[in-house]
Amino acid sequence: MATKNSSVTEFILAGLTDQPGLRIPLFFLFLGFYMVTVMGNLGLIMLIGLNSHLHTPMYFFLFNLSLIDFCYSTTITPKMLMSFISKKNIILHSGCMTQLFFFCFFVVSESFILSAMAYDRYVAICNPLVYMVTMSPQVCFLLLLGVYGMGFAGAMAHTGSIMSLTFCAGNLVNHFMCDILPLLELSCNSTYVNELVVFIVVAIDIGMPIVTIFISYALILSSILHIRSTDGRSKAFSTCSSHMIVVCLFFGSGAFMYLKPPSILPLDQGKVSSLFYTIVVPMLNPLIYSLRNKDVKIAMFLMRDFNFSVFSPSLLLKENFKSLSECLVQI
């Protein structure tokens, strides 16, 4: 339902481009991105859920990161794909507010889950002897509760701020989704307070995780520099490298979009830059953690061998006989 003071009951999403020749190629390009995102994140979720060796605090948070990325991408991409194949991509006012709420919920939750993962790496590297005590299931659950609690609070603040606006006539949203800044442009009343709310909430939702991550990695770096062995240092760096890449991609693109005034970054350019953290980052996260994480790669190989053995009993019998023969030779 539209707000009481608004005459707009539906919006038209302008999409990514208005050039007909680019629509079909872009449709298949982003459809491919979405399929990779879904398969990558669901695959990582299943891998962590089914492999008992990955039931640790680190992979508990990675499981939730993949879940957030999957839901995050599903909130945005299907509706964006419709803009490439339909003449008018219409979304109801209630649907627009719903998409905005879930978009804000998942993007804020992702920022805080990344900070929780940084804290987890700090404890693992700086206090390894008390790691399992410090990162107990109860602590992990409380951290996760805080992650989704901040996501819900941020989503309510942004959505409530937008729902308080009055939309009189214009209903063309210059974006491929119901985002905050394009909707502010359509309001026919003053948006100064709403822009202030957006800036404050975004500063908190980006600032708090960044400070937590910065402090965690400063302490991690200090601890690594005190490690004498080269192997120990490289192992510690490799443990954190995947997470640092994801943090830079996500926070860099998000801060570039929302912490700059619209006069510096026009919406047409912001629309393109927002593709990075809404489409590309959720697709890259499972690839980064899969390709740069030894435990995940081992679990993938074990899962593959297990599935192959289940469907090939003769091969399994052959491998067992080979192992038995090797043992007898050694005896």
TrEMBL record:
Location(s), subcellular: Cell membrane
GO CC annotation: plasma membrane
InterPro entries: GPCR_Rhodpsn, GPCR_Rhodpsn_7TM, Olfact_rcpt
Main location: membrane
A Pfam family this chain is assigned to: 7tm_4
All copies of domain G-protein coupled receptors family 1 profile, residue ranges: 40-289
Claim: Nucleotide-binding is one of the keywords in the record: no
Keywords on record: Cell membrane, G-protein coupled receptor, Membrane, Olfaction, Receptor, Sensory transduction, Transducer, Transmembrane, Transmembrane helix
Transmembrane segments: 26-50, 56-78, 90-109, 196-224, 236-259, 274-291
Family to which the UniProt record says this protein belongs: Belongs to the G-protein coupled receptor 1 family.
PANTHER family: OLFACTORY RECEPTOR
Protein name: Olfactory receptor
